[in-house]
Design brief:
heterotrimer; A alpha/beta; B mainly alpha; C mainly alpha; A: Rossmann fold; 10 strands; globular; C: ABC transporter involved in vitamin B12 uptake, BtuC; two-stranded antiparallel sheet; 15 helices
């Protein structure tokens, strides 16, 4: 177990079924701190379900998830987030009511740094304003990091699809995560945007943030990830370095099968 | 009256109000099933139906004809409301939709006030006849009418939604829009028809109890609220659940009034509602479905 | 023009302050109308914090209005308590009720939530009717004294007008402060998408309850002010119809803007003053106005005003 000190996330024997259908069966793998680990598999392999289990949106039937040695199962999503785990969504989920701006969205990412209260809003206004100023600067930095500082005052709905994905990423970075779960962050992006996104991922990795990446875009996965784990029909299929996974006959077979079903997508 | 006959008497009054709650709950469920909308104006159709019938019979129309006309008029009002007021804001938030149906109920109530004024009106019973004695309790003949009408309405609903193509297609609308359109009905048409059905049934409930209850423009609020309770307890989208819950509510309420406290019966009923909502949000008779993230 | 836009609130303040001595001579009737307007502004603004910001539907806001009014009424009329203490007690009880029922009730969504809040309103009203020995029941609670602080009694209607409007400014001001603060932003996140909010560490249940408690305390304050002005309380004033009226103000004025619902309250409470000769039309007219607003101007009266303002500024900037 000496090695597991470097393992930031350990998923052990996770099983989850919906009304009798197994979405995940005995999934076990680990994510090494500081790495980008890609989680791939054909449609319906249970990737998003696994992310939902990791950040507490779905309780698994059995199994354990350890984040830096701490059991996450049974913890609420917001508690898990406070530990330093952040995620983005496959279908973009930005905050849009009451004319919330792009900047508001990013600043909301910093919730755990502010923990705002009514008293703070009414009685400790100077302290609140000071903290707010710091967070605003950080938010502008995060926006600049993804290249969206020009859009700070805009409404998220006015952004292009690709920029909305970048905004989600900036928002997640604001929570100063140790582990970032990205659910198909490149889907719907054009080639140039994917190129830019790969550089962003490397930059995030260089900051020491671990990434667990669910992605269909193989070019992106092969280029950025340190390690890949493959799920097929909710089961662990293979795990290893990108080159090894590429050559693995089991993986090729699973993907060929998927290609047939999807008409070659 | 001995103790047993008192209990029977409470049961009869429970059946009477239970029929009304069941009918209103069913009318709410029909609209909800097809258009996923709860109409806060359903109590107004209850009043409109009853008062229209009062007017028509006082103008000398024979009872059966007045009855049919009142149902049709109320159904038409409901359908028009859907077409011209609900459809334009169909995609608004649930909050706006709730407020829209509240706005409609205010407007309809205001209209009823202008047409019929503030005095309470009562309808003559559907058939002359002396109260019947059962186990020492008295049963008004009108109560038999109410129960009969309720059974008949439920039968018609069942036939329509189970046995006719149009009914089956309307049911399909809530679950599967494409499937419904394949069966030759658009969601718009289904919503339109569901409002006609809903307001017609709401009106029937009002007309059935009109000989027992003084009606005025604002009499619809409490029956509507009770109908909601029955609907929620029945599981929102279940007609059977709404009927069972409606009668259950009527009977529980009657015994609460009679045996526990007439002053706090509503307090108890509403507290029970909150408890049911919290611990069994799918209703007592609804299937528990696991929620997706 | 731009300056006017920025300092409109000073003009408003001056108007509120100077209205009684200059324009009114201030008959008891006029001050009464304006006091009601003020009380309803507090109610509408407090509901806006809950509905417009936290996104939680309530069809039972009058429950807390009732608690405030009856706690103030009972404590001062029956037990001779100081109105200030009674007012605070009312807010404390309202807050406690909101806190107690908030977690389970606010876990409900949409129609279920609407139903549960409506039930809460009915429970409070039926309790008021039922607990006759305490509340006077359906026949009402008499002889609520005028509001007073040690050494000064607000028994003059102009004095009470100033008191109510001072409270209005306090409530509106603090609501705006809350709405614009990080706390308000957090509520907006919950309103938008609870699941996403949770993934950023937001304890949604706790924040919803906090918003509910604040909203209930403000509504209770409005209730206490109402009780001391009326001197007589009857359960009819606190039913679901009152809750619905507050809801109407929210949507009429423009939900989620604080100023909008205040404007809605002013509009809806002043309207009958101009249409009193057609009293029977009031219900129908309220309904039609609301329908028109919902269909044609989903941002409400305040949305129209800001739209006009923007257009004027765009023109003057040219």
């Amino acid at each position: 177990m000496a090695q597991s000190a470097e393992m930031i996330l350990r998923i052990a024997d996770v099983t989850k079924s919906f009304e009798g259908v197994h979405a995940l069966t005995d999934v076990t793998f680990e994510v090494r701190a500081g790495h980008i680990k890609a989680l791939i598999g054909p449609n319906g392999a249970g990737k998003t379900t696994l992310l939902n289990v990791i950040n507490g949106l779905l309780p698994p039937d059995i199994g354990h998830i350890y984040f830096r040695g701490q059991e996450l199962i049974g913890m609420s999503t917001d508690r898990i987030a406070l530990l330093g785990l952040s995620r983005t969504f496959q279908l973009i989920r930005l905050f849009t009511v009451n004319n919330a701006t792009v900047l508001d969205n990013v600043m909301l990412g910093a919730h755990k740094l502010l923990k705002p209260t009514i008293c703070g809003a009414l009685f400790f206004r100077r302290k609140t304003a000071r903290e707010e100023r710091v967070v605003r600067e950080q938010a502008m930095d995060a926006l600049a990091f993804v290249g969206l500082e020009w859009a700070a005052a805009m409404l998220p709905g006015a952004l292009s699809f690709g920029n909305q994905r970048l905004l989600e990423l900036a928002r997640s970075l604001m929570s100063q995560p140790e582990l970032l779960l990205l659910d198909e962050p490149a889907s719907g992006l054009n080639d140039a945007e994917v190129e830019g996104f790969m550089q962003l991922l490397s930059a995030i990795r260089a900051r020491g943030i671990t990434i667990l990446l669910v992605e269909h875009n193989m070019k992106l996965v092969m280029n950025v990830s340190d390690e890949i784990v493959v799920l097929d029909f909710g089961r662990w299929l293979a795990e290893g370095a990108p080159a090894a996974i590429c050559a693995d006959p089991k993986v090729i077979e699973a993907y060929l099968g998927a290609c047939m079903e999807n008409g070659g997508s | 009256m001995n103790e047993f006959s008192t209990l029977v008497q409470f049961f009869f009054s429970g059946l009477t109000s239970g029929s009304v709650y069941a009918l209103i709950a069913v009318s709410l469920v029909i609209v909800y099933k097809v258009s996923l909308l709860i109409c806060f104006a359903q109590g107004e159709f209850f009043v409109i139906g009853a008062l229209t019938m009062v007017t028509l019979t006082s103008k000398g129309l024979p009872m059966p004809l007045a009855f049919a006309c009142s149902v049709l008029i109320s159904a038409a009002v409901g359908a028009l409301v859907e077409r011209f007021l609900i459809r334009p804001i169909r995609d608004a938030s649930v909050g706006s939709l709730i407020v829209m149906t509240i706005a409609i109920s205010l407007a309809l109530r205001g209209l009823a006030l202008l047409i019929w004024g503030k005095e309470s009106k009562i309808l003559p019973p559907f058939s002359a006849g002396k109260p019947i004695g059962v186990f020492g309790a008295t049963l008004q003949p009108q109560v038999l009418w109410i129960i009969g009408i309720t059974i008949l309405v439920l039968l018609v609903i069942w036939l329509f939604f189970e046995k006719t193509t149009m009914g089956v297609a309307m049911r399909a609308c809530a679950e599967n829009r494409l499937g419904a359109s394949l069966m030759g009905i658009s969601t718009e048409k289904a919503a339109f028809l569901s409002w006609a059905w809903g307001s017609g049934i709401g009106a029937l409930a009002g007309m059935a109890v009109a000989p027992l209850l003084f009606m005025q423009y604002s009499s619809g609020v409490m029956p509507m609220v009770k109908g909601f309770i029955a609907m929620s307890v029945g599981g929102l989208a279940s007609i059977v659940g709404a009927v069972v819950a409606g009668y259950l509510l009527g009977v529980v309420e009657a015994y609460t009034i009679g045996l526990i406290s007439s002053q706090f019966s509503d307090t108890i009923v509403f507290t029970l509602l909150i408890i049911v909502l919290i611990f069994k949000p799918s209703g007592l008779f609804g299937a528990t479905r696991s929620r997706e993230v | 023009m731009r300056r006017l836009g920025r300092y409109w609130w000073i003009i408003l303040l001056l108007f509120i302050a100077l209205y009684p001595p200059t324009l009114g001579g201030m008959s008891a009737y006029k001050s009464g109308v304006l006091i009601f307007v003020g009380i309803y502004i507090i109610l509408a603004v407090s509901l806006d914090l809950l509905m417009g910001f936290a996104g939680q539907i309530s069809v039972g806001h009058a429950a807390f209005f009732a608690i405030g009014a009856y706690v103030s009424g009972i404590l001062t009329a029956k037990y001779g308590a100081s109105p200030v203490l009674a007012l605070i007690a009312g807010m404390a009880l309202s807050g406690a009720v909101a806190w107690g029922v908030g977690r389970p009730v606010l876990a409900l969504k949409e129609y279920y939530l609407a139903m549960a809040t409506l039930a809460l309103n009915e429970i409070i009203v039926t309790l008021i009717i039922g607990l006759q020995w305490l509340t006077g029941g359906a026949s009402g609670l008499r002889d609520v004294p005028a509001f007073s602080v040690p050494g000064f009694s607000f028994d003059n209607h102009v004095h009470y007008y100033y008191l109510v409007w001072a409270m209005v400014l306090l409530v509106v001001g603090s609501s705006v402060a809350v709405a614009r603060s990080p706390f308000g932003r957090t509520l907006i996140a919950i309103h938008s998408d609870e699941t996403a909010a949770k993934t950023f560490g937001i304890d949604c249940a706790r924040y919803k309850v906090r918003a509910y408690v604040l909203s209930a305390c403000y509504a209770s304050l409005a209730g206490s002010l109402f009780a001391h002005y009326m001197g007589f309380l009857a359960p009819d004033d606190f039913g679901v119809m009152t809750s619905i009226n507050i809801l109407v103000m929210l949507y009429l004025g423009g939900i989620g803007t604080i100023y909008g619902p205040a404007l809605g309250a002013v509009f809806l409470k002043l309207l009958p003053e101009f249409t009193y000769q057609f009293q029977d039309y009031e219900l129908l007219m309220n309904g039609i106005i609301l329908i028109v607003v919902l269909v044609f101007m989903p941002r409400g009266l305040f949305g129209i005003l800001t739209g006009i303002k923007e257009r004027v500024f765009a023109r003057s900037a040219r």
